[in-house]
Amino acid sequence: MRPLNDTIEEPRSSGANLLRLRTLVRLRWLAVIGQSAAVLIVALYLSYPMPLGPCFALIALSAWLNIFLSIRWHGSLRLSSRMAGLLLAYDTVQLAGLLYLTGGLQNPFAFLFLVPVTVSATSLPLRSTLALGTLSFGCATALAFYHLPLPWPPGVPLDIHPNYLAGLWVAIVCGTVFSAIYARRIAEEARQMSAALGATELVLAREQRLSALDGLAAAAAHELGTPLATIALVAKELKREMPSVSPHSEDIELLISQTARCREILARLSNRDQAADEMFGQVKLSSMIEDLVAPLRGSDVEIRIHCKAEARVAVSPEPVFQRNPAIAYGLGNILENAIDFAKSQVTVDASWNKSQIHLVVSDDGPGFDQQIFDRLGDPYVTTRPGYTESREADGTHEGMGLGLFIAKTLLERSGATVTLANQRPPAEGARITLNWPRAAVDIGPTPLHGT
């Protein structure tokens, strides 16, 4: 695969510094409003006896904490994992205090213990999530035994069996664990996909810059023409005024000859007509494959290319592609990957009919690993040695698992359908099939396609 170390790093699984202060402040304001509304409804509307003063003291503490944080720091501040963990731990303890005053685990709002743990699972390192989970489980366990009475109508008996409380505790624990694992997995996949798509955009931008070098060369030829003419003129004047036996005569002659050579090179660049530019921008399918394979020949792996129209539509002309950096990079990565894993041979079979273009790249290597077959084409999936999520300190490895993802993404953007498979036994090796609707990529034939 082409090296990607210089363009993208895998998102760290720790998720550090992803939470903004504004996010936690807003979530806490929602909690303050919800807690205040619940206390007021129970105390004033339902007229249940409850410790109103202590409850509002705990709610006011959260409000004052929010005000302090908003004044002390800007809302866009990205919190360290330690600071974010401490703030979420406070929210857990404050919720436990309110539940202690209002019935403990008997209170139906006890399920809110899963909120801080879920927030941590999406944005903080695993150790912070485990610590918050342990704190939540500890608080839930303590509240099962130590709490003030649940606000309830006077004179109405409330008898909750211990087995029911045990079931509530198990439900809270299971809900917290499930929500945390699910949220963490979804957030991790979103971060990986975002980073991988960023790598794809960087690669495509680099390829587009390379394809634009031809235009830059013509512009440079135009701009350099005047100073080179001036140099040539000054050199000739110096030669005319210099004695014929001067020790610098050979240097002046060399300067004049090299200046003339530069002007000839620039003339060839600047005198290319539009038709030639258009011809260079178009390429037949077979020529495109040859151009991509040519730099890869010379290794121990034999590369065989077969290009032909399907037998039943032999009159169909060969497809002509617009030179596309995305297709070139994507197909080039697939070819390099096949050569890296092949034992002795890589085969490229191209065929076409009036509506479809088919391209199959196969090798005689070990094929795709069945353990990761369902994840092929996803970012950071690789069977190359030297890459794990916990990299060595120097960060060196052979592959990041991004090459196939980038190739597949770029080719699909061009309209191709990419299918990954292993060859049917007894044959061995991997088989990657590309199918383009001919109308999506074929720009020919035109009179410019005579070659």
Which structural class do you get from the secondary structure elements?
alpha+beta
Order of adjacent strands in the largest pleated sheet: 2-4-5-7-6
The residue fraction in helices comes out at 40-55%
Could you tell me the number of beta strands? Answer: 7
Main beta sheet strand tally, sense and closure: 5 strands, mixed
Query: What amount of the residues lies in strands?
Result: 5-15%
Uncertain segments of ≥5 residues (pLDDT<50)? 1-17, 385-400, 446-451
Q: What Rg is obtained from the alpha carbons, in whole angstroms? A: 35 Å
Mean pLDDT: 79
If helices are DSSP runs of H or I spanning 4 or more residues, what is the number of helices?
A: 13
Distance between the termini: 31 Å
Q: Give, in order, the helices and strands.
A: HHHHHHHHHEHEEHEEHEEH
- Principal-axis shape: elongated
Ordered list of secondary-structure elements with their pairings:
Blueprint: H1 21-45, H2 52-72, H3 81-101, H4 114-123, H5 126-145, H6 162-211, H7 213-241, H8 249-270, H9 274-280, E1 282-284, H10 285-293, E2 302-309, E3 320-322, H11 325-341, E4 345-352, E5 356-363, H12 403-413, E6 417-422, E7 430-437, H13 438-441
